[in-house]
Amino acid sequence: MNQSTKQCLKPLLFLLAALGGFSLARAEPIPVFVSVLPQKYFVERVGGDRVSVNVMVGPGQNPHIYEPMPKQMAQLAKAKIYYRIGVSFETVWMEHIKAANPAMRIIDCQEGIELHPMARAEELFSSDSIEKISSQGGHRHGRLDPHSWTSPPLVKIIAAHIRDSLIQADPAHQAEFQTHYARLAEDLDRLDQTIRQLLAPLRGKSFMTFHPSWGYFAATYGLKQIPIEIEGKEPGAKTLARLIELAERENSRVILVQQQFSRRLAETVARAIGAKVMIADPLAYDYSRNLRQVAEALAQAMR
Ligand code: ZN
After folding, report:
1. Which among 61, 59, 39 has a CA at the least distance from the CA of 51?
2. Confidence class for position 27, pLDDT limits 50, 70, 90
3. How far is ligand 1, taken at its centre, from the CA of residue 70, in Å?
């Protein structure tokens, strides 16, 4: 292209840029809903400014017992997509959520992820008690553990569902969603590598947690999670005594707690075994930074 052609094209390019800017300003972001804050982070990473994300369970709230506010139920009427992730308030509310907006697409972020049953400390006690529990037939019938997002490789599956659903909702911006997804997937790979290196020396070791939110994290990085809470309830005195015994045998040095649950019992156990209580929030918005910090603190505390 010679210089004069370039000069001729200039006004045309300006016009195109102006038109582009105009249509950009007019494009309304796709209104969507998610259940928990890490999902908001994932949807915003993939959707950029082409989505506006409403979150059901806000900072500090507990997704196991949450009840949507009337205002949120009203906002659902405008949403195009609901991203579910398997947390227990969804089970109670999903029919109401669907009824609030029958045209809204419901995307299951966990599709394709092999879910584990919720962790129960009994399964880690001596093998004879495991047999006893098994023969009672109940222990595998518990609900599935929804906290899959604590494993960065699994977040790539979640994010792929988000990418595909956004492409379907807004096909004109397919390339953009694909690029954003690729960038997020790269970040997740890097995060996974960092955590793997941090925790490699601790393989096979165990940590305690009040609420069993870290099962997929533990499985990904070769650690054992010993939960104090059992199916949403505090253990009785006898189970607690066995838990303390188990934690001593396993030499657990750290107990994870999160702000959404009481810390009292964790502190009692910590005193009994001389472990450290550490705050680790699986529901923080800033996913990568939070997970890296949890891994760093764990590596330090378990050393
Ligand atoms: Zn939970």
Report:
1. 39
2. confident
3. 23
